[in-house]
Structures are given as C-alpha cells and as structure tokens.
Amino acid sequence: MNTLLSKQILALADSRGTALDRLILADSKDMRQITKGPGQDILILDDPTGALTLESLALVLARGGRVLSRQRSYDLALELFHTAHTLGEEASARLLIAGLDNKGEIDPGTFGLTNFLVAHSFQGNLALGHLPKSHSALADTSYDFSTYQQAKGAGATLLVGGNTKHMVHTFNETLGQSFASVRGLRGKGKHRCLLATEPKPQGSPPKLAGALAAFGGVFSGGKPDAGGQLLARAFLSDLASSDNELVNKRPLTLLDLGCGNGSVSLDILGSLPVGCRVSALYATDLDLDAIRSATVNLTKNPAVQVSWDDAASRLPDASVDAVLLNPPFHVGTAVDLTLIGPLLRAAYRVLAPGGRLYLVHNSHARYRQQVEELFINTRQLERTPTFTVLSASKK
After folding, report:
1. Residue ranges of the alpha helices (H) in the chain?
2. Which of 10, 174, 245, 367 is the most exposed place for a label (fewest CB within 10 A)?
3. What is the reported pLDDT for 392?
C-alpha cells in the first residue's frame, strides 16, 4: 500500500470534484462496503471532471484491484492517461482506459464497453458515473455491464448521478431494462443518484432507430440529421458548379470533422458529380460512440479512414482539399457557442492553400463573423429557418 500516493491522488480528486461528484462518491461508500474485497476492480463511466476515476484509483491503491475508466471524450480519456502516468508507474498500472493502450495509443478493440471489460478481465461489481443526457447512452452501457456480469455469474451495482431537473422517471425505466432493482437515492442540493442492482437477462442489445449502425449516445442515432443532409447537398451542388476549382484538382482529399454517425460522408461518397473522385476521406470525432458508429457505416469504402481524435490532431498541416463541419453547440445540456472556435482553427490548419471549408450551423448561432476572422471568400450556400450552410476558402 502506498499511503502517500493515495493521499496525493485524493487531494487531486478533491480539487477537481463538483457537488455532483461528491454526492456520487458519498452514495457509493455504502455500495463499496457491500462490494468490497481484496483485488476488486471498479468501473467508471462518464466522469467529466476525472474526480470519480481518481478517487477510485486512490482506493484501489490502498486495497488492491484496478480502475477501468470508459470516457466517451477522447481528450478526457487522454488527459486521465497522462495524469496517471505523471503520478508514477504504480498509479498508471492500476488505471485502464477504454480505447487506449498502455502507451496512450488508440486501441479500437476496447471502444465498446463489453470488449473493454473482456479485454481486461474485469473483476468487480461496482460501476459509478454521471447520468448521461441520452437514454440511448444509458441503455448501451447498462446493458453491456449487466450482461457481462451475468455471464460471469456475478452481481452488479450501477450508481449514476445527475442534476435533478434533468432526471425524469423514464431514466429509471431505461435502467430497468437491464436491472431488476432501480431506485432513486436521497438527493442533496440540485443533485441525486439512481441505484441499479440485480442484473437481469435481456434478449438483444439496444438498437437505435434508423438504417445506419449507431451506438450509445451518438448524435442523431441511426438516422441522418437534417443539418448534415443539407450540408452534404450544398457541398455536392457546389462541387458540381462549373466555377468550382476543386473539381479540376487531383482526386480530392476530404475531412469530415466531427463525423458523428458518418451520414454526411455516406451521402457525399454516394453522390459525387460525374468525373469527381475522392482519394481519401478522413472522418474524425471526439466522441467514442460516434467513432464506433462511423467505423461500421464508413469503412467498407477503402478510401475512408475513421479516427477517434480531438480536432483532427493526427492530420498533417495543409493536407486536405475540403473540410465538412457540422459543429456541436452543447456541453451536456448547456448551450455553448464557443465550441466552434477550436474546430475552425483545426479546419484552417489542415486545409491546403485554396482549400475550402463547408460549415452547417443552426441559423440562430450566426457563426459567419468567426469564419471570416480566419477564412476569405465566405459565401452563404443555403439558408432555411433552421440551418445555414457557409463556404469559405483558405488564403
């Protein structure tokens, strides 16, 4: 036992933790008494501050076991990886992160929760996390955790917390698809937790409606979203115009930045103008569920490469001819119109001189000024009461 290291990690967790984190950890103490034992692993799901992962890491350093942490956000997963390695070899050996190997490189074999648990032979009963904003994300992880535990013949305790104003009874019903016992715990301030126990058999994994493959909380589920469809149509129409210099280039290299379920890329690849070819299409997203979905939907085409990434950081400068961008503007349930900034800068970096950005956004967001701060020749290609499509060129 490394008491000094455990105390250091607890202090770090406390500095990051929010009121919701503290409530989840407080409610989990009783569950830890039930599930405690030497060498017991703990599973962490949806931990936006990292506090749940770090406090659990301090616990397993004291009593044995490991922490398996699955975060949908690439930058959070990577940040937790680097934090553990900064704390030393003992801490880094006890923290396993879905989608990353022991060197911090991408490991597609552990993107899905079941694959992650199987790959590391999870030996525990307890999972903690923030309540996701979508029922589909909750259904996906609760099904995988429950099913894995049943296959082992083991019990399962899933504790998730959220803001009470966003918690409706249907979240209990979603958990009840995979667990026989679901109840709300006593809240504190604006927050409360849901406790699910007694995993129960369920016939097949939850499937999102739509023709496309879709996993967990991927935006738009298994269907194309209306903004993305408008973006694809506007791009194809612009590409077909006689004055579009991109048509006269070598086979095009495209980037679908924030690809979601891959529907924009699918629409484009299926309807290219006569004589236009795509030599490479890179589809990247920060969200793990998006990458799981896009990988199934896109990689049958040999020109496509799908990557879990933050703002296309793995692509070289000036390496693509056109960027397609349908940016997010929510963090959880809160609107945040600043999210587009890093994506616009990423688009500018990866575009070759003369390359073009194609952006769709909700018309109320009015991103044109931000686009014009970086790009030239900004044009409005489409506008509806709901969506606007802009095109702009790199100098």
Report:
1. 3-16, 19-35, 51-63, 74-87, 89-94, 113-119, 135-152, 169-176, 226-240, 263-269, 288-298, 340-350, 368-374
2. 245
3. 97
